[in-house]
Structure to design on (237 residues):
């Protein structure tokens, strides 16, 4: 298949994928298509499935490309196996799903262009909370609406997560530090990638998107590890 044919196959599950993205993944060694005598890329069906695995691992698990490549290399050498790539969900996790299934936001990636917009009523229904609870989340900056008053799907997951934490006696006002820490991380990433985004070259923007995605994934990993280490210190384990 040509790179255009591959793009057409992937777009159904990954609407934000572009030819530049596929070329970037090739440059990073995630996929190695063949070449025609005239130099055009030729992708096999196995290459497409490999790309699906990479894109799903980024979107659903926020894994850095280095980690994804290590998994693929292990599978190639027979020392491991890449999990089957799940199809993207058509809606958010059901309201009555167990807390462990809520997981991370189901956005296509950290730099998605077009996002589903939810009204306040839809947010309340999806998150299983009432209007006063939402007002409290907004008061402490945990949930924010856009300029037109709509919410993105991440707001639903934030609301559900906070709701689950309240069962342990943690109130939204206790979580302001999380909002402040996230804003500081965003500010740091912004300083790094803003100069790249200012370039008019489309390839530069694509590269900046990848840098944001990689840094965000590393940031999530670092945050998780630091919290786990702190909990071990508290428990003495």
């Amino acid at each position: 298949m040509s790179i255009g044919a591959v793009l057409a196959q992937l777009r159904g599950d990954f609407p934000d994928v572009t030819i530049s993205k596929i070329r970037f993944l090739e440059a990073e060694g995630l996929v190695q298509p063949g070449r025609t005598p005239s130099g055009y890329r030729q992708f096999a069906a196995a290459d497409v499935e490999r790309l699906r695995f990479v894109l799903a691992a980024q979107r659903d698990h926020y894994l850095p490309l280095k980690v994804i490549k290590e998994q693929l290399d292990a599978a190639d050498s027979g020392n491991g196996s890449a999990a089957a790539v799940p199809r993207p969900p058509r809606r958010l996790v059901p309201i009555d799903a167990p807390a462990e299934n809520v997981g991370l936001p189901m956005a296509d990636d950290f730099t998605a262009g077009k996002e589903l917009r939810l009204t306040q009523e839809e947010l309340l229904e999806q998150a299983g909370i009432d209007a006063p609870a939402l007002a409290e989340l907004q008061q402490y900056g945990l949930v924010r609406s856009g300029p037109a008053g709509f919410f993105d799907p991440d707001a639903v997951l934030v609301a559900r997560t906070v709701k689950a934490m309240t069962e342990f006696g943690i109130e939204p006002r206790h979580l302001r530090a999380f909002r402040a820490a996230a804003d500081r991380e965003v500010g740091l990433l912004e300083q790094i990638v803003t100069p790249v985004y200012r370039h008019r070259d489309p390839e530069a923007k694509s590269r900046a998107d990848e840098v944001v995605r990689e840094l965000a994934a590393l940031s999530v990993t670092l945050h998780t590890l630091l919290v786990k280490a702190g909990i071990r210190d508290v428990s003495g384990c």
Notes: Residues 81-109 have pLDDT under 50 and may be disordered. The radius of gyration is 20 Å. The chain has nine helices and two strands. The chain has three domains: 3-77, 112-170, 175-236.
